[in-house]
Automatic annotation (TrEMBL):
Gene name of the record: atpB
Subcellular location field: Cell membrane; Membrane
Residue intervals passing through the bilayer: 20-38, 74-96, 102-122
PANTHER family in the cross-refs: ATP SYNTHASE SUBUNIT A, CHLOROPLASTIC (PTHR42823:SF3)
Lineage: Bacteria, Bacillati, Bacillota, Clostridia, Eubacteriales
Function of the protein: Key component of the proton channel; it plays a direct role in the translocation of protons across the membrane.
Coiled coil: none
Family stated for the protein in its record: Belongs to the ATPase A chain family.
Gene Ontology MF terms in the entry: proton-transporting ATP synthase activity, rotational mechanism
NCBIfam families: PRK05815.3-2
Membrane topology: Multi-pass membrane protein
Alphabetical keyword list: ATP synthesis, Cell membrane, CF(0), Hydrogen ion transport, Ion transport, Membrane, Transmembrane, Transmembrane helix, Transport
Stored InterPro entries: ATP_syn_F0_a_bact/chloroplast (IPR045082), ATP_synth_F0_asu (IPR000568), ATP_synth_F0_asu_AS (IPR023011), F0_ATP_A_sf (IPR035908)
Protein's recorded name: ATP synthase subunit a
Amino acid sequence: MFNVEISLTTGYPLGLSSEIVTQWVIMLFLAIGGFLLTRNLKNVPDKKQAALEKLYVTIESVVKSTMGESYTNFIPYVGSLIIYLLCMNFTGLIGIKPATQSLSVTAGLGLTTFMTIHYTAIKRNGLFDYAKGYAHPFIVMLPINIMERVMLPVSLALRLFGNMLAATLLVDMVYEALAGVASIAQIGLPIIVHSYFDVFDGTIQMLVFSMLTMIQIKLVSEE
C-alpha cells in the first residue's frame, strides 16, 4: 500500500492512493484493449472476433434474462461493470491488493449504481410518477421505501468491501504463516488460496454486485 501526496498550485495536497492508481491503470488497459480488439472487425470473424462476439452474446443474454428486452440499452453499461469489477478483484493474482478492498472504491461504485437506478426510473416514468413510486403500494410505506432506496448503495458498497477486504486479509495471513515455516513454502502452495479468494470469491462478488444492480434498475423503473 502506498500513498502519494501531490501539492497543487494552491498549496493543498492531493492524496493519490494505490487504489486510485490501480483503477487508472485498469481503465487505461481496458480502453487500449477495447480499441485494439474492436478495430478492423470482419463479416467473417476470426478467432479473436469470435471470442469477443461470444462475450457480448453472453452479457446480452444475462441482461435480457434479468431485466427484459426493453433494457438492452444497458448491455454496454453492465458489460463494462462486469469486466471492470473482475479486473479489480483479480489483481491479487499479480501481487496487487484489489482496489475493491477499499471502502472509498466500493462506495463510489455503489453511488454510481444509485444514480443509474434513479436516473433510469425518472427518464422512463417522468419525475411525478417516479415520486409516486415512493408511496407504493400505500402511503404509509413512504418512510420504508425511502430508507430502502437510500440503503441500497450502502449495502452494495459494504458487501463488496467486506468480502474483498476479508479475502485480502486471509491471503496475507496465509503468506505470513507460510513464511514462518519456510520462505520456499510461499511458492506454489498459495495457488489454491488465490484460486479461491481471488478468482472464485472475486467472481461471486462481481456477480452479486452486477445482478443486484440490474434487478434494482428494473424494479425501481417499473414500480
